What does this fold into?
Amino acid sequence: MHLRRDRSLANNTKQTQTSGNILMEHPKQNLATRLLTGLHRASRRSYDVSPAFRIGIGIGLIVLLGLIFAAIDLKSDLSHLKITVLSGPKDGEDYALTALLAGEAKRSGGMIVNRATAGAAANLAGLAGAEAARTTLFALVPDGLDLPKSERLVLAARLPRTRTLFLLGPKADAVHYFSDLAGMRIGIGPAGSATALFGREVFGSNLLKELNLALSEHSFTEQLDGLKQGQLDLGLFVMDTDAPSIEQAMRASLQLASFDNAEAVAARIPALKVATLYRGHFDQLRLLPQTNKKVFQVDLLLLANARVARSQAVAMLVLLDTAFKGFIEVNRNTPNRTGLREVADLKPFLINGGPSVLDEYAPRLMDFMPPANLLHFAVAISLLFNGLTFWHRFRLWRIDVNRLQVENLAFDLFGHHYTVKEIAQLTPRPGEFHEVEQALLNGLIRRTQALRQQARRYSVSFVAPMGAEIYYRHQETLIDEQLQSLRQFRARLQRLDSGVEAGFDG
It folds into this structure.
């Protein structure tokens, strides 16, 4: 057998050559120490992922996929809509409008709780209060009010519904300009209502202070009775243009004030719009009103608390678009001058002309992954897969490094002029391999077996990309050749030792 030790040890040993065999004749302590140290280091360098980590990653992926599939709804409806709307008094128009929306939501599988309040002031206080942090709240208020500057309030939408400011009185036909109101007693509706808030803002402003107006708050019934009995000169009502109560008041001989310079007033207050009620609008036979009347109108706004979930906001927008014709056009064409920021989902809804595919079929998913974050999510997924690919390449590199280490250790034992296949063909001679060399050979075989098992585990790991198993198979082939050569040599060595012992026994 030809055995070649490392050439660096040649100066410290005495070599004997017999029939082309080069053998070591002195104790091989340095070589043994070197080989054992190499085996120890190679055995420590295992970069496998622990089973607990793999199980944790697997469970995490399963849970994530489960949440995603649970959030996907293949049926496009509003079953996820569950909100509360602060509307107004139960006998008011806003409460009736909210009831209409609640019925439409119920037909689509959603739920709207119609909560009656004292009016617009209570609605605004409810949205800005602590309750808004625990409940998904919306509220109806007319545009043009002095809204509180609160970060808790956002503009959800502008409804294609208007509220008209009616100024009624027994002698209201004589009113053509604000100067005609001097000294008048004016009722401005119930306390806390949108009517009262408008009355204070318009008639209680510093511009009209010199008119010495007497403002008082009354329920609508009391206000109408006060006008009929002469206790009030004028009464302000904020209602729908075709409200039956206004028509009844006109039939009861109350007149409607009209401002000839209404356009000039609206130019100073952007929320106001000027509309004309033509002669006979309420009664074409009695011609009520008897002349064309210019009145002010304001849009009806839907406000929300700032923490409203995306799924709830979009679902409400879908409901409003279904219930009101022209909803998208009104919101597209009307600038936001309320001083409140819009809900983040309004503009994308208007640009797309409706909800996105994800908002429609995976609304819950959008609550914690808005479209604005999808790019970040895509980047994170890309980084994850790139990281897995890097880890796969790193582990493949480490397998190759460890294989070469074991191979070099084998060459240190047998000689660097041999190949792995040639080692399998070597024939040991008696006395060439002592206990130290045999222990080293067994250590090389154990390390090669462990390396082969490691390569097999890596090849079936989820880290290995699809199709990359071939690289691990190649490493397994090289390791198998190395393991087979070492095993074959050890088998010959064991047979030689058995023969020698048998000769001694004989």
Remarks:
- Residues 7-44+378-505 form a domain with the Glutathione S-transferase Yfyf (Class Pi); Chain A, domain 2 fold (CATH 1.20.1050).
- The first helix runs from residue 29 to 44.
- The chain has three domains: 7-44+378-505, 82-159+300-369, 164-299.
